[in-house]
Amino acid sequence: MSEIVKSAKNGVQSIRRVIFASSAGTMIEWYDFYIFGALATTIASKFYHTGTPVGDIIAWLATFAVGFIVRPFGAIVFGRIGDLIGRKFTFLVTMSIMGLATFAVGLLPTIDVLGVWAGIILITLRVIQGLALGGEYGGAATYIAEHTPHGKRGFYTSFIQTTATLGLFMSLGVILVTRLGLGDATFQEWGWRVPFLISIVLVAISIWVRLSLRESPLFQRLKDTKTVSKNPLKESFFNPYNLRWVLLALFGATMGQGVIWYTGQFYALFYLQQIFKVPLVDSNMIIGIALLIGTPLFIFFGWLSDKIGRKKIMMTGMLLAVLTYYPIYGVMAAFAPTDPGQHFLFAYQGYSMAMLILMILIQVIYVTMVYGPIAAFLVELFPTKIRYTSMSLPYHIGNGVFGGLVPIIGLSLITATGNNFAGIWYPMFIAGICFIVGMLFVKETNQVDISDHNSSIAGAHENKSRDKLNK
């Protein structure tokens, strides 16, 4: 009987502790990452003076995007450390780095004090945040999966899939409470710093909780048998068999998942505030309520993926997004606070928070379909000794680059064309390409038993290919 199954039978509480500690830390790290974006319309002009409010927001979103773009580099650096030294050590390091960088943003003087150096320092801190997040997710997802019994991996890892949404939800909640508590004038003056500053307390608590964890049993077995990878980067990206699955993970899964995630949650918030002119408090409440209702579906689709497979759920979510984004945003335009002047299928009906919540909730459901099973899917693609490195890179390119560029590309398309709906062309195109690649080339993974540390889709493909060559 495998070590994972023994651990599960010895007490569910141990698995619960692993999930709680890993997920709570990752949620706080996402909170740190997303308060930056959630405050875009409030403080963009405090760090950038481009001459127009829209220009300031574009500059802010570009800085926001930098944090996404560098995430793959963080995945390479910290993925390698995670496969060489261990999962626990690595996500403790990334959490510490993220917390300090976020706290520093809360202390950073504005452009009125530092001039252009304010923006330069801000970009530097954002780069540090992106590098840290690039190492966090892969470690936490791998850590949970390597404690999980076969047949329940989608269910258990789905808890960590809720953390990005809960982190965004927490950021919106803290911003809303701070704004209401301090008042608009005080919040605009200095209150915006509070969400950044309190993160240091949350990070300290998370580190304290994570220090009580031990290394994952599968990685510990590699250390005990001295079979840890000597060069995870080479084995992950210069082995043609493994590289093929890294590329398929990117172009057949995480690329589409990334754009749907950011469109359905963060970009939807931007659309509400900037395009449909929903007041800040109302827009945060609309997103918050939709997230609160939809978040349990991450766990449902993770559980369902154990039963019917990861691939069909993720591909269905992508297809639905491609087919329905235009009508959804048409409905949102119809129920905005004021007539935006552009419509698709639906005439202007007047402001309705309930209808906007429903439209955001539908998008969140798509997010839960593509995101709920993704951690288990990625874990099952790659063998234990290079799992952290191999899964982190496609995940963070898909989410950090393709997903993270959704707001800046969308706003640029809207500005260039004058068409409010041009902002969703990019996510629809990327999700459509990913659906085609995924349906044609990606294999189902939910039957892979990773308790054998050599077992994976990539490893099985490599072994079959070599057997053919030997014959």
In short:
By secondary structure, this protein is an all-alpha fold. 79% of the residues lie in helices and 0% in strands. It has a single domain, classed as MFS general substrate transporter like domains (Growth Hormone, Chain: A, Up-down Bundle), CATH 1.20.1250.20.
Proper CATH architecture: Up-down Bundle
Number of domain units: 1
Query: What is the typical, i.e. mean, pLDDT?
Result: 83
Largest sheet, strands/sense/barrel: none
Order of helices and strands: HHHHHHHHHHHHHHHHHHHHHHHH
Distance between the termini: 33 Å
CATH topology name = Growth Hormone, Chain: A
Residue fraction in strands: under 5%
- Number of DSSP strands? 0
- In the predicted model, the low-confidence regions spanning at least 5 consecutive residues are 1-13
Which overall shape is indicated by the principal axes computed on the Cα atoms?
A: globular
Count of separate DSSP helical elements: 24
* Backbone CA Rg: 22 Å
State the secondary-structure class: mainly alpha
CATH homologous superfamily grouping: MFS general substrate transporter like domains
Q: Helix content range of the residues, please?
A: over 70%
What does this structure look like?
Helix 6 runs antiparallel to helix 8. It is built from 24 helices and no strands. Mean pLDDT is 83; it is low at 1-13. The chain has 471 residues and is mainly α. It has helices at 3-10, 12-38, 40-47, 53-69, 71-84, 87-107, 111-114, 116-145, 153-182, 184-191, 193-197, 199-210, 217-224, 232-237, 240-275, 280-294, 296-308, 310-334, 353-371, 374-381, 387-403, 406-417, 425-441, 457-470.
